[in-house]
Amino acid sequence: MSKGFDIDRIGGLRAMRSLEEVVVRAGDAAMQHFRQGVTPEKKPDRSPVTAADREVEHAIRDHVLAEYPQAEFFGEETGRHGDNPGLRFIVDPIDGTRAFIRGLPTWSVLVGIEADGVPVAGIAYMPAAGDLFAAVQGNGATHNGAPVRVSKVTPLADATVTHGCLQQFTEGGVGDALVRLANACDSARGFPDFDGYRQVLLGRSDAMVDPGVKPYDICAPAVLIREAGGRFTSLQGEETIYGGSAIASNGAIHDELVAALSGTPYQ
């Protein structure tokens, strides 16, 4: 387990629970849009956005800015508010908007907290699936209130690995890495967005490979995976959420997986 974060910096466990409640309320409100169907818009980068994305982010942003006026807020839809690298809330209001639009229950609400450049707390709520994950650095990770741990499977040849959308590999110029992954592990399966990390947290998968991500996609997962006993790095093995890619694993196969994806011999 990693070195602990002083949770009193955000008001203690009660404040963390309050933030979880805000996330759950916002996610449950988004369920109304999910059930009724939505008409998406296209952002300049051609990715979709819906009214639910904006409503969820506004609800979380209003809470954060009211409770932590000195903190920085960084959301996918509304950008940055404030400037405080010492305490930053990083939010993806609906991770998996394409799934949300198509009626797939794998979308989530993600809230990560970064302190002095290190992810220290994470909340991931999947309303349609009924899953709530939470973690604070040094305190372990929970799934619906119960402790959760990653698998112990090793070596990579015996492992099941989840991965993001195929376009992430091709558009990122790492299509060959997907082929190497398929040849190196027992089973490679597509579970995009947070759903892939969920499978690792629940021990159903032993690693998640995400070649095209933003900080708001992975701040919360980084804390959750690490606090569940796993490792979280970029594809190059760097412990950062700003590398544009991510590997989350049970730890036991991590170095072997990094080597396999890069095409270098594993020592």
Task: Provide a short characterization of the protein structure.
The protein has 267 residues and is an alpha+beta fold.
Keywords:
alpha+beta, Fructose-1,6-Bisphosphatase, Chain A, domain 1, five-stranded mixed beta sheet, globular, D-Maltodextrin-Binding Protein, domain 2, 267 residues
Question: What does the model show?
Answer:
The protein has helices at residues 12-36, 51-67, 97-101, 166-171, 175-184, 194-201, 215-227, 254-262; strands spanning 41-42, 48-49, 72-75, 79-81, 88-95, 108-115, 118-126, 131-136, 141-143, 146-147, 160-163, 187-190, 207-210, 231-233, 246-249. It has 267 residues and is of the alpha+beta class. The chain folds into two domains: 7-147, Fructose-1,6-Bisphosphatase, Chain A, domain 1 (2-Layer Sandwich), CATH 3.30.540.10; 156-262, 3-Layer(aba) Sandwich (D-Maltodextrin-Binding Protein, domain 2), CATH 3.40.190. α1 packs antiparallel against α2 (51-67), α5 packs across α8 (254-262) and α6 (194-201) runs parallel beside α7. The longest helix is centred in the first third of the chain and has 25 residues, at 12-36.
